[in-house]
Amino acid sequence: MSTTGTAGLVERATLDDLQRTFLFEDFSLEQLHWVIDHAEVRRLAAGEYAVHQDEAADAFWVLLDGEIRFSRTVGTQDVVVEISDRPGTWGGWLPIFDNIPTISLRALRPTRALRIPKDATQQMLNGGFPLTNHLLIGVYGGVQNIEAVTRQQEKLAALGKLSAGLAHELNNPAAAAGRAAGQMRELLASQEDRALHLGRRLSNDDVDWLLSLRDDAAARARSQEPLDALTQSDREDELLRWFEAHGVERGWDLAPDLVTAGLTTADLDVIASRLPAEVLSDSISWLCATLSAVALTGELESSAERISDLVKAIKDYSYMDQAPIQNVDVHAGIDTTLKIFGYKLKFSKIRIVREYDRTLPKITAYGSELNQVWTNLIANAVEAVSGQQDQQITIRTYADGNSVVVEICDNGPGILKELQARIWEPFFTTKGVGEGTGLGLDTTRRIVVRHHHGDISVSSKPGDTRFRVVLPIEQPVNG
After folding, report:
1. pTM more than 0.85
2. Domain residue extents for the chain
3. Correct CATH for 9-130 of 2.60.120.10, 1.10.3470.10, 1.10.760.10, 3.90.850.10
């Protein structure tokens, strides 16, 4: 990748170069000659940068001919803000941009650009050169465009993260359901053969008794608590010895399912005392298969419920098919957001502590926007505690007059005091390069303050960072 175009061929600008641009159209001849004396023309090869966002801009650049692209890296994505081949298109350093991260200016084909050093640019602005109208229009439109494109990219990036988490969440029950369905198919095919074979060899009374035993065993299996590995192994060994003593075939295959269902050697003794010895092995095999079918059915039901819950969570999170502003339960929104984060929270072993005031009323709000607030704040808290031995996020709600307060707290390392006032600034981020856009908290603040007439603040020290969101219960009539 080419870096800043300092290696480009340098030449002197001409009057024709400047007069062909809209930017200098109102300049006098004296002012044009001043620009020529204080600037230089750089030839940029295709792919070469005039300015790169990772470097502080030290000059004002004006396109003379060629084509240039304005872009910003958001996360790991290169987001194109504008592409222009219009002579006079400008970018780079201006005093108003001193506290705003630079955007990259890159030539798309062989390009000539006028480079006006920082000091000369400041002299032009102080000296009343007729740049003001063009710069004001460009600054306003450019910043609006940059923020809109970058915010859209951040939303897509956030959606991508949520989608990845949901994919993991959905994959587990879907895979479990697939396995259970495949095993059920095999089980039903073999079970039919066993049932027909036994039906020809058992009396009606024995069949009725065996069916009753099946129902009792299935009921016990559904309420059976899981055993620890050692107890499970010991009981399987007991059943194996019983099977060997009674000539039951494939005992190693039957024992695990029967123990899981809660059957013991005492239950098998009852079966052996009631049924003829020649059908004992087939009867126990049939019973084991039936109990396996019950377990697989339960697994299918559980998987389907989990998938249904996740689909509902997605609908609740986005407030799909609902009015944009409505009465919102903040607890439901927070819990739905946590459900969306389920995989990441489980994988990271982060403890969530809920300190909810369940007596709080619903508030009038834009539900999907509030969920974006909870998403940004919880995501920040997750990143803050990641890697610690003790990872905890506390979510607290309470009333404060006519407002509802939500605090999202983490026990991470905290935010440096000198940075706390800057975290709300657009594009400011404390994360490493490529890890954040610096718009998450800016977006959060806009939603809370502008859209909901509320307030958001932060207090932080090592081990205790608290974001405090205050939301009015009722929105103003003109809100």
Report:
1. no
2. 9-130, 164-309, 323-472
3. 2.60.120.10
